[in-house]
Write a structure and sequence with these properties.
mainly beta, 12 helices, 19-stranded antiparallel beta sheet, eight-stranded parallel beta sheet, single chain, about 1000 residues
C-alpha cells in the first residue's frame, strides 16, 4: 500500500545518502561497547560517546557527550502530595550501584542498565535506573520510590540539575512543546525565554494570559544551537502512568548554559509503598533535528504509532465553510460538486464536522445514515466528528445503555463537585463504568454503525484533566488512556477501515490515532500572529511527529479564500502561505472553504497537480533554520524543506511579513545537497522553471509571498515565468493623491510604491495601463495596498480591455486584496483598465501586472445586466423563492455573478442562502436541478454585492432555457423582510434573454412578475 511504499523508498534513500556521507548519523561517531565500572564511590558508564559518572558518596552525577559536560551534579527527587519539600537522592543515604544487560528491549544494541539505589536515612529508597546502548547517543532513565508505609506521590524527577550545557555555539536556543495543541510550540534564546500562555488543564471561566514563560515544556524539549545544530533532546520515552514534563531555567548570559533543567512526571497522584515514574529519553546529537526525529521513533518502540495503509486524507470538511449550518441541502450538492470536479484529482473524503443538521424531521442517526449512503454512492469516503470526553447533556439525564446519570459519570473536584471545562461542558470520567459505556456508545452509534470512514475526535484534552476519579487509584493520564483505548479499539473493530484523527489533544500519548492536529484552529490568532501563521509555525515545529508518533500530521484545513468571511475573506497571498504550510505539513489536505464560490486564482491552488503530488505522499517539511517563534513573537521560519521520494529537495519559502520584502538565501549543503552539483530549480505553484544553480539559491520574497521550489539533478521542460508586459509602459488614473502616488507607480515592478486616488475619492476611480500597441493578453494580476495591516478598501471592481473604440468588461467582482490573478481567453488590446466601482476608502494599487501566458485561458463576461440601475428587496425565506430565467450562448456555464445581500438587523437567517441552477420546460418551470450551492449567513454584505459562483456546467443545450433559483427554506417566515436574504433587481427589462419569477409555495408553482419586465441582476461568463 501507499504507506508501505513510502517507508521503503524513504529507507532506501536514507541508506544511500548515509553511504554518500550526506546525512549525518544520529548515533555516536564510533560506537563501542557499553562499559560500566566502579572505582571507590564513583560509578562510570560509557559507550564511547556518552559518559555518565555517579558519586555514591553524595547521590549526584555528571552526564557528558564527548568532552562536553552536559549536566553536572544532577540528582533525583520526589514529593508527597500536600508537602512542598522535595525528598532527594542527595539527602543523607546509603547508596549502592549494580548493572546488568538490558536484553532485547528494542531500544538499542548490547545495552546495559545501571541501577543506583539510594536508601535514604529518612526511610524512603530512591532507585534510579539508566540504560545506555552502544549504538545510541541517548540514554533512557526512570525511577522508583519505595517506602515501608504507603505514600501519596504527586511528583517524580529522575534527573534534575542546576545547569545544562550543550557546548560551543553562537546561537543557542530552546525548543518547547505545548501541553495540548490549544497551545503552541516555541523557540527562544537560552537567556531570554520570552512569554507564553503557560497552558495546562483549564477550567471554565479561567482566562489565558500572555505572561513570562514558566519554563515548563511538555512531552519533549530541546536545547540547541541554531548554527551548528548541536543539541540536547529530552522527553518522555513512555507515558503509561503520568504526564511528562521538562523544566528549563534560562541562562544568565547569551549563549550560556541553562541555570536549571529537569525531566519529571506530575499530574495527579499515585499511592503505594512502591511508586514508579515513566521512562525518559535524554540524548545529545550533532543535529538536534535528527535528535527530535530519533526521539519520536524511540517513543514509538514502547507505544507504536497506529499504522495507516491507505491514502492521505484529501477532501472536504464542513467547519470553516458552514460552521453550524451544514445541512443536507448544502452537503449533498457539495458532494456532487466534489465528485464531478475534484474526485478525479484525488479528493476522496467528505467530512462532517460539528453540528450537522441533515434534513428536518429526521433523527440525527437517520441523517448520518443518509449522508454516509450518499457519499459512498459517489464512490467517496465519509467522515464525522465527536467530542467524546465532553458532556453536553443535562447532568440529571440518563447515560445511554446504562442506569447512571451524567452527573454520576462526570469528573469531580476534591469536594465532589463536577468540573466544568473551558468549553463550558462537564467532563466524562473514563474510570467510571458508566463513562466507559458512554464513550463506547458514542463510537458505535455515531461512527461505526453509520459506516463512517474517518472520525475526528475533538476536545479530547478534556480526558486528561485531573480530579477526583471514580477509580481513586487513577490520575488524569491513566483515565485518558482508558477512554482513548475504548475509542481506538471500537473504531478499529469496525467492519470498515476508519481513519482516526485527534484534534484538540495532547502530543502524547500517541498510538491511539492515525493523525493529530499540530495546532489550534487556524482561525484563532495569538498576540501579533494571525491564525494562519500560528498554524504554520506549529506545523513547522511538528515535522518530526510525522511517521514517528503518528502516520500523518494534520495542519488543519485549507481555506484559500474563506468565503464565509465576506469582505474580510483571506487574500491570495494569505491563502498561498497557508497552502504551503499545509501541503508541506505532512498528511492532511481537507478543504474547509465553500468550494463553489472560490475564485479561479484560489481554485488553481486546489487543482495544482504538483502540489497534490506532494500532499499525497504525506511527508513533512522541517525548518532550515529556526526563528524565535511564539515565545519571542518572531515570524514563522522563512524556509522549510523535505526530501521527496526521488531525492529532490522540496523547499517552501514564505515571507510572513505582509508589508516588507524579505531576502532569503538557501545553502544547498543545509539541505543535505552537494555544494558542487548543478541543480535545476522549478516552482510548483506557477509550474515554471527558475533556472540552474550551484551551491545556493537567493531571491527576495515580496511581502506575503510564498513559493515552493523543487531542487533536482534532473532537467525540466517547464517554461520560465512569463514577462510582465506592463513594465516600462505608461499608466494614467482617474485621480492622484500626489506626485509620489501617480499611476506610473503601479507598473514599476515594485510593491513598495503605489498609485493612490485623490483625497476624498472612493467610488468610480480607475487605473489604466497603456501597452503602446495591440498586444495579446490573457492574464492580469493586481496587488492592492493594505495600509500596513491587511486592511483593504476596494469593494467591487471591473477589469476591462480596450477593443479599439471602447472599453469591454472582462470580469467583475467583490474584493481584491494583496493579490488577485485574473485569467481569461486571450484578447488583443492596447490598454487594460481596472475600474473601481465601489470602495470603502481611497483606493490604492501597488502593482498591475499584465501577461500573455502560452496556453492560458479562463472566463470572461458573456451576458451582463449589472450595469443598469437596480433596486433591492429581501424576502427569501421559508416557501418564498425567486428565479431568474436565462439563456446561454455556449454549451458551458463556468461562472455567474449574482447580486446578493442580507438585511441583517439583529440576527442572521436560520438557514443557508441556496442558489440552484435548473433546466426549464417550455413554460419556464424547473424540470431538472443541475447545480446547487449554499452560502452560510455570516458576513454576507448588507448591500447588493456580486457573489461569484462556479457551476462549471458542461454539455448544456443552447436551445433550452435555464433558471437561477434563490431560496432559504429553513429561514423563518415572520412577516418581516428584516434579517432575510435579499437580491438586486430591475423592473426595466434589463435582460432580454429571460425574466424573474416568484414562487410562494416552496418552488411548486411559479408566477412571472411585472409582465416579464423584472430581472434579477446577474452576470454570465463564458
Amino acid at each position: 500500500m501507499m504507506q508501505e511504499s513510502r517507508k521503503m523508498i524513504q529507507a532506501m534513500l536514507v541508506f544511500v545518502l548515509v553511504l554518500a556521507g550526506l546525512v549525518p548519523s544520529a548515533a555516536p561517531a564510533a560506537a563501542s561497547a557499553v562499559t560500566i565500572s566502579q572505582s571507590g564511590t564513583i560509578v562510570s558508564a560509557t559507550n564511547g560517546f556518552l559518559t555518565l559518572n555517579y558519586d555514591l558518596a553524595n547521590g549526584k552525577g555528571n552526564f557528558s557527550a564527548g568532552s562536553t559536560v552536559i549536566l553536572s551534579d544532577f540528582y533525583s527527587d520526589y514529593s508527597v502530595a500536600g508537602n512542598s519539600t522535595r525528598i532527594s537522592s542527595a539527602d543523607p543515604a546509603t547508596r549502592t550501584a549494580s548493572w546488568a544487560a538490558t536484553g532485547n528491549d528494542g531500544y538499542g544494541a548490547n545495552g546495559q542498565r545501571l541501577t543506583i539505589t539510594n536508601q535514604l536515612n529518612s526511610g524512603s529508597t530512591i532507585i534510579l535506573r539508566i540504560s545506555m546502548y552502544e549504538d545510541k547517543s541517548y540514554i533512557l532513565t526512570d525511577m522508583t520510590v519505595n517506602n515501608g508505609t504507603s505514600q501519596n506521590i504527586d511528583f517524580l524527577e529522575p534527573i534534575a540539575a542546576n545547569n545544562l550545557n550543550i557546548g560551543a555555539g553562537s546561537d543557542k536556543r530552546i525548543y518547547t512543546t505545548p501541553y495540548t495543541n490549544n497551545y503552541d510550540f516555541g523557540v527562544a534564546p537560552v537567556n531570554d525565554f520570552g512569554k507564553s500562555q503557560n497552558g495546562y488543564d483549564r477550567p471554565y471561566g479561567a482566562g489565558e494570559t500572555w505572561a513570562p514563560f514558566n519554563g515548563t515544556s511538555y512531552w519533549v524539549a530541546s536545547v540547541f544551537d541554531n548554527t551548528n545544530k548541536h543539541g540536547v533532546v529530552a522527553g518522555a520515552a513512555t507515558t503509561f502512568n503520568w504526564k511528562s514534563m521538562q523544566y528549563l531555567r534560562q541562562a544568565a548570559t547569551a549563549n550560556g548554559p541553562l541555570t536549571g533543567f529537569s525531566i519529571y512526571n506530575a499530574g495527579g497522584q499515585q499511592s503505594g509503598t512502591s511508586v514508579s515514574s515513566d521512562k525518559f529519553f535524554l540524548g545529545y546529537f550533532d543535529d538536534y533535528q535528527q535528535g527530535l526525529e530519533t526521539f519520536g521513533r524511540t517513543y514509538a518502540i514502547a507505544e507504536p504509532k497506529l499504522e495507516w495503509n491507505d491514502d492521505v486524507p484529501i477532501g472536504f470538511n464542513t467547519w470553516y465553510a458552514y460552521y453550524a449550518y451544514p445541512t443536507a441541502d448544502a452537503m449533498f450538492p457539495m458532494t456532487d460538486y466534489f465528485e464531478e470536479h475534484l474526485k478525479p484529482l484525488g479528493y476522496n473524503y467528505m467530512n462532517l464536522d460539528c453540528c450537522y443538521q441533515g434534513v428536518e424531521n429526521k433523527t440525527d442517526l437517520e441523517n448520518l445514515d443518509d449522508f454516509v449512503a450518499y457519499v459512498h454512492g459517489k464512490g467517496m469516503k465519509a467522515g464525522t466528528y465527536s467530542a467524546p470526553f465532553a458532556i453536553f447533556d443535562d447532568l440529571t439525564a440518563t447515560v445511554p445503555t446504562t442506569s447512571y446519570t451524567f452527573g454520576e459519570i462526570a469528573l469531580k473536584d476534591a469536594s465532589g463537585n463536577p468540573i466544568k471545562s473551558y468549553i463550558n461542558t462537564y467532563i466524562v470520567d473514563a474510570t467510571h463504568p458508566g463513562g466507559q459505556a458512554y464513550i463506547a456508545w458514542i463510537m458505535d452509534t455515531y461512527h461505526v454503525k453509520p459506516g463512517f470512514d474517518y472520525v475526528k475526535l475533538d476536545f479530547i484534552d478534556l480526558g486528561m484533566y485531573d480530579g477526583k476519579f471514580y477509580d481513586t487509584t487513577k490520575n488524569g493520564m491513566q483515565a485518558y488512556r482508558i477512554g482513548m483505548q475504548i475509542m481506538r479499539d471500537a473504531l478499529l473493530a469496525a467492519p470498515q477501515d476508519i481513519y482516526i484523527n485527534e484534534s484538540i489533544a495532547p502530543l502524547l500519548p500517541a498510538g491511539y490515532a492515525h493523525g493529530r492536529r499540530t495546532g489550534v484552529d487556524t482561525t484563532i490568532g495569538l498576540e501579533s500572529y494571525p491564525g494562519i501563521e500560528r498554524q504554520a509555525f506549529n506545523a513547522a515545529a511538528s515535522w518530526w511527529t510525522n511517521d514517528t508518533l503518528y502516520a500523518y500530521n494534520d495542519v488543519d484545513m485549507i481555506f484559500p479564500e474563506s468565503v464565509i468571511n465576506g469582505f474580510d475573506k483571506i487574500t491570495l497571498n494569505e491563502g498561498t502561505l497557508l497552502s504551503t504550510a499545509i501541503a508541506l505539513g505532512g498528511g492532511h489536505w481537507l478543504i474547509g472553504d465553500n468550494v463553489p464560490f472560490i475564485s479561479e486564482d484560489r481554485m488553481a491552488i486546489l487543482r495544482n497537480a504538483g502540489l497534490l503530488d506532494l500532499v499525497k505522499k504525506g511527508n513533512a517539511a522541517k525548518p532550515v533554520k529556526m526563528s524565535n517563534f511564539y515565545h519571542k513573537l518572531e515570524h514563522s521560519p522563512i524556509a522549510i524543506y523535505l526530501t521527496d521520494t526521488n531525492g529532490d529537495r522540496i523547499v517552501g519559502l514564505s515571507n510572513w511579513d505582509m508589508n516588507n520584502s524579505a531576502p532569503v538565501s538557501l545553502s544547498f549543503t543545509d539541505l543535505g545537497l552537494n555544494a558542487s552539483t548543478n541543480y535545476t530549480l522549478t516552482e510548483i505553484y506557477s509550474s515554471t522553471k527558475i533556472g540552474q544553480y550551484t551551491g545556493s539559491y537567493s531571491r527576495t520574497l515580496k511581502p506575503g509571498e510564498s513559493i515552493i521550489v523543487r531542487i533536482s539533478e534532473q532537467p525540466s521542460s517547464l517554461p520560465t515565468a512569463p514577462v510582465n508586459l506592463a513594465l516600462g509602459k505608461s499608466a494614467t488614473a482617474s485621480s492622484t493623491w500626489s506626485s509620489g502616488y501617480d499611476a506610473a507607480k503601479a507598473i514599476d515592478g515594485s510593491v513598495s510604491t503605489r498609485w493612490s486616488g485623490a483625497s476624498g475619492t472612493a467610488n468610480d476611480q480607475w487605473l489604466e495601463v497603456n501597452l503602446g500597441a495591440a498586444t495579446n493578453v490573457n492574464r492580469v494580476a493586481v496587488s492592492e495596498y493594505g495600509s500596513g495591516n491587511q486592511s483593504f478598501q476596494i469593494d467591487t471592481y471591473t477589469l476591462q480591455y480596450w477593443n479599439g473604440s471602447a472599453y469591454v468588461n472582462l470580469t467583475k467582482g467583490f474584493t481584491i486584496g494583496d493579490r488577485r490573478v485574473f485569467d481569461f481567453p486571450t484578447v488583443n488590446t492596447s490598454k487594460i483598465r481596472l475600474y473601481i466601482n465601489k470602495a470603502r476608502f481611497i483606493p490604492s494599487i501597488q502593482e498591475i501586472e499584465i501577461y500573455n501566458v502560452p496556453g492560458n485561458t479562463g472566463y470572461r463576461i458573456d451576458q451582463d445586466n449589472s450595469g443598469s440601475s437596480y433596486s433591492t428587496y429581501s424576502d427569501i425565506r421559508d416557501v418564498i423563492q425567486r428565479m431568474q430565467t436565462f439563456t446561454i450562448t455556449q454549451s458551458e456555464l463556468p461562472k455567474m455573478d449574482v447580486y446578493l445581500y442580507e438585511s441583517y438587523v439583529n440576527k442572521v437567517p436560520e438557514d443557508n442562502y441556496y442558489l440552484d441552477i435548473v433546466e426549464l420546460d417550455a413554460s419556464h418551470n424547473p424540470v431538472k436541478k443541475l447545480f446547487s450551492a449554499a452560502l452560510q449567513p455570516n458576513n454576507i454584505p448588507g448591500a447588493a454585492t456580486p457573489y461569484a459562483i462556479y457551476p462549471r456546467l458542461t454539455g448544456l443545450d443552447t436551445s433550452k432555457k435555464y433558471g437561477l433559483i434563490l431560496r432559504s427554506p429553513g429561514s423563518l417566515e415572520d412577516g418581516s423582510t428584516n434579517n432575510k436574504y435579499g437580491f438586486a433587481y430591475s423592473d426595466s427589462n434589463t435582460y432580454a434573454g429571460g425574466f424573474e419569477r416568484l414562487s410562494t409555495d416552496g418552488g411548486l408553482t411559479w408566477t412571472t412578475e411585472n409582465a416579464g419586465n423584472r430581472d434579477l441582476i446577474f452576470t454570465i461568463y463564458k
